[in-house]
Amino acid sequence: MARNSALFVMFLLVLSACASGPQGPYDRGVEQYEIGHVGKSISDYKQAIALRPDDPLPRFNLAVIYQDEGRLAEAEKLYREIVKGHPGFSPAWANLASIMEKRGRAGKAEKLYLRAMKADGGSCASSSQYGFFLLRQGRGEEAERIFTKSLKNDARCANGWFGLGLIAEKKGDTRAALRDFDRDSIYNPADIEAYVRSADILLTLGDTRRAAGLLEKAEKLDPKNGALNLKLGRVLLTNGELKKAEEALERAKKNGAPPAECERELSRVYRKLSVQAADAAR
Predict the structure, then answer these.
(1) CA-wise closest residue to 83 among 95, 98, 68
(2) Whole-model pTM?
(3) Per residue in 27-40, pLDDT tens?
(4) What distance in Å separates the CA atoms of residue 255 and residue 245, rounded to the nearest whole number?
(5) How far is residue 242's CA from residue 265's CA, in Å, rounded to a whole number?
(6) Least confident piece of the model among 6-10, 99-103, 159-163, 198-202
């Protein structure tokens, strides 16, 4: 289970783009990051920090980049600078927690997740991240209570629904899992993992039509995901949607899915298409 504070960290990275004034280095940093120019983004954030050392946002976003790159010591230093001057800045506490967790210091991480919840009053963002931490620690009952409480406070908390979906899936309660993942996708329609998990459940139930529809939604969000292209192609093939299956499998081959698997599935598509063509010619 890979969910952690990075989910709302990157969300904040975009939302806070106007905080330091129009056309300033902070805004350029956000823009450069969005178009994939990470090095330029780092340079702009450093400039923004020098110009406005009391503003936590450029320091925070720079720390996020460092954390994503595995530069944990540098990220930790920046997060600690933030919480020293801005103890109510909850995402910095949560990201410190994720760093401690990655280092195997679960006890310290838990204290920091709780500190993040205290900083923002237990909002959906901080409480759900604590819930995912509890799941990763094998403390499912505690996690379920946290997710349930977060949803009582905010019924639109997509991560809360996703967490409950994971718990229901683990219990084998497929109906509840599908319901919870569906609610997650209502409030976070860009949640690829929710679509894929629901599709996988539906496939085990033999509902390949609904599964294909969910995988198509996921693929639209991540069209260059070879594994996702391949999964969709296989389901479309099962459903007899041969042309769409061929297109998905060609995308899979182009986007790095195992070539042998792509060719094997494509050969099945071509055999079925040839049979169809022969039948039509009679």
Answers:
(1) 95
(2) 0.86
(3) 999 999 989 999 99
(4) 15
(5) 11
(6) 6-10
